[in-house]
Design goal:
2 copies of one chain form a homodimer. Chain A is of the alpha/beta class. The first copy, chain A, folds into 2 domains: 3-223 and 394-410, Aldehyde Dehydrogenase, Chain A, domain 1, CATH 3.40.605; 230-378, Aldehyde Dehydrogenase, Chain A, domain 2 (3-Layer(aba) Sandwich), CATH 3.40.309. Chain A is 44% helix and 21% strand. Chain A contains 15 helices and 16 strands. The longest helix of chain A is centred in the N-terminal third of the chain and has 20 residues, at 3-22. Chain A starts with a helix and ends with a strand. Chains A and B meet through strand 2, helix 10, helix 14, strand 13 and strand 16 of A and strand 2, helix 10, helix 14, strand 13 and strand 16 of B. Chains A, B: Belongs to the gamma-glutamyl phosphate reductase family. Chains A, B: Pathway: Amino-acid biosynthesis; L-proline biosynthesis; L-glutamate 5-semialdehyde from L-glutamate: step 2/2. Chains A, B: Residues 74-285 form the Aldehyde dehydrogenase domain.
Chain lengths: 418, 418
């Protein structure tokens, strides 16, 4: 197979289809999404069958239990995909919305209309449900999509793609509105990210290595976050109970998510008082603790944190703890070692909360709540295609609006420039 | 001079300064801008002196009259810079503005706070007044800037830079908040656009060749437009008088601007009626006309347009004219040959105006007004750093808001994820 030619053909078809998707009515897009629901529901046996091939290959190739778990399709994961589609149907359609329409001194009216980006390339790893999730968000936001899943999920993804095509057809939308790459050749990714004439933006989902590689080589914009090194800073004037609850929740609610706290910063004046209780509860939860010198002095038998610990995303029951002298030391630690993802302060002090919100340079800044809230659903976006730690275009959880742009619309009545 | 080292040093200093500029109050930024006004006003002789060197060099190097004209600083151009600064002082400060702050079902409040991008690199050609304009917009939007002007304006730009530094100092802002590159070595541009660790976005202003080169080689996002191939489509149901006025204004108001019409599209049913009058008035204005076959059949002695004409930005008193069968033909011509900059329809038909607004994929779409309105001042942005025809981040005229991003702010009261 000539991968370059194949990907170029996919790209051209996506570009053509994108014009039709961009102007599709909300009702038509919802009809397609609901027809996908019906197709997935009636294809359960086929999906599970295809998935079994992937699982068997996976076992042969020595995938670990966690990866096999993420790869598996069963009634419950198919229910999850269906529920996800129904949620996207329920979301308001951002496309065509006109805002800020005002008269100007010249007499013209100027406003902004929300428009799709065009063609979105999604690159992801093992979980096949991402195929449905990404396709539905791109479709609802009026974009065409090219999806490149992991080679370990190729059969599952193709079976899902067939259901997506059934849905598109039922609504009279072109099949090329959502295309799932059929080759597992790695060169396909290289092509996908270097076709600015066909692809408007790439959204990679996966490990840091994958995303770094894509960002480095891409010739189109990439919406991404590399990692989530999130902090909670417990200020001297923190409410003790809130601080303990938030610090526990931010670490132990889920270990493998990007908005999980990796480093806890504690004001020196409250450290002795709060650490005893916290350490006990972390240890009860099975969290390994690594402390700075001052922390280790207060809590003997704690592991000494190394310089590397401050910039490590553990994604595991491990937490580094540092005692700081004041909010300035906390914020400079966060801005230096953090990944600009999500950082929280626990304080009852009005002025310090205001400073933290303004001065911490992260995509989400939080006062008196767990970092685990940094999420499209919790923020009310309805769903998220990913989280961006960049500042260009979208920042933070990216929902339907992040998959669109705005154009200016001008209404006149024969107006000319003076 | 080691250009790489020099540029890296500039970059590091800009990154450090950007944190201080980001948190500067509106009053402090305005104080700096007004101190720049005073410094420019009291340095008129020095500025004109420095500029004379550039003009002399320019003449030696055979710059044409138009370029020398753009390069010249005199009392009137200095007045213009001062007036521009005063306008930026008057603009509202976008930084820190919080919008969409709402309670979520979990009890947390979520909103978005507008934040600076960080460090902006500006690359531009001969006009030294861009130095003040770009610096002031970046400063007001809380960003640090590195400015790289044309080598032909180096003495003028350094003299202006000195006034900018006086202004920064008077307000207690770091001198590195605005840095003007002191070397004319071309390698400096190559460095500037490949330092993602120090530069967050590049805004190039200049010819298409410069911008294409920068976009191709940059390792950071670029806010740009390549060219402005703008269209006016006169529909069958256009008001004749509005159509003639708009078509004339869009072409003849100014020839060298990116929002000037380059191709006029006319519905076949109105062409014979309107072309006689229009051609006469274009010819009176000295505009050379190049028509499609049907246009030439109606207006004998008109030059035949070639395929190249449809994708040429003349920036001159030249206009290509094409007769089309309907709005679909017009829109497909625009989407194919246009540059997604600014396109207008003249029609009294409600349904067609609505279709044109939705389906034309340009950064500005206009009904019954001249394309010349596509401009930051006319749109009420107060000023513009440039016009973007991209869809990622900013689109259309880019003002202060386009030089910022948004972060999520979350307010809780001890909230944890369930």
């Amino acid at each position: 197979m000539n991968v370059e030619l194949y990907m170029n053909t996919l790209g051209q078809k996506a570009r053509d289809a994108s014009r039709l998707v961009a102007r599709a009515d909300t009702g038509v897009k919802n009809k397609a999404l609901l027809a996908m629901v019906a197709a997935l529901d009636s294809s359960r046996a086929t999906l599970v069958e295809a998935n079994k091939k992937d699982l068997a290959h996976g076992r042969e190739n020595g995938l670990d239990a966690a990866m096999l778990d993420r790869l598996e399709l069963n009634d419950s994961t198919i229910d999850g995909m269906i529920e996800g589609l129904r949620q996207v149907v329920a979301l308001p359609d951002p496309v065509g919305g006109i805002t800020d329409m005002n008269y100007r001194p010249s007499g013209i009216q100027v406003g902004k209309m929300r428009v799709p980006l065009g063609v979105i390339g999604i690159i992801y790893e093992s979980r096949p449900n991402v195929t449905v999730e990404a396709a539905s968000l791109c479709l609802k936001s009026g974009n065409a999509t090219i999806l490149r899943g992991g080679s370990e999920a190729i059969h599952s993804n193709q079976a899902i793609a067939a259901c997506i095509r059934v849905g598109l057809k039922a609504a009279g939308l072109p099949a090329e509105a959502v295309q799932v790459v059929e080759t597992t050749d790695r060169e396909a990714v290289g092509q996908l990210i270097t076709m600015p004439e066909f692809i408007d933006v790439i959204v990679p989902r996966g490990g840091k290595g994958l995303i770094e590689r894509i960002s480095r080589d891409a010739k189109v914009p990439v919406i991404k976050h590399l990692d989530g090194i999130c902090h909670v800073y417990i200020d001297e004037q923190a409410d003790r109970a809130k601080a303990v609850n938030i610090a526990l929740n931010a670490k132990t609610h889920r270990y493998g998510t990007c908005n999980t706290m990796e480093t806890l910063l504690i004001h020196i004046a409250i450290a002795a008082d709060i650490l005893g209780d916290l350490v006990e509860r972390y240890q009860a939860a099975g969290v390994e603790l690594r402390g700075c010198a001052r922390t280790c002095a207060l809590v003997p038998a704690m592991i000494n944190a190394t310089e590397d610990d401050w910039s490590t995303e553990y994604l595991a029951p491990v937490l580094s703890i540092k005692i700081v002298d004041d909010i300035d030391a906390a914020m400079s630690h966060i801005n230096r070692y953090g990944s600009h993802h999500t950082d929280a302060i626990v304080t009852e002090n009005y002025t310090l909360s205001r400073r933290f919100l303004r001065e911490v340079d992260s995509s989400s800044v939080i006062v008196n709540a767990s970092t685990r809230f940094a999420d499209g659903f919790e923020y009310g976006l309805g769903a998220e295609i990913g989280i961006s730690t960049d500042k260009i275009h979208a920042r933070g959880p990216v929902g339907l609006e992040g998959l669109t742009s705005q154009k200016y619309v001008v209404l006149g009545d024969g107006h000319t420039r003076k």
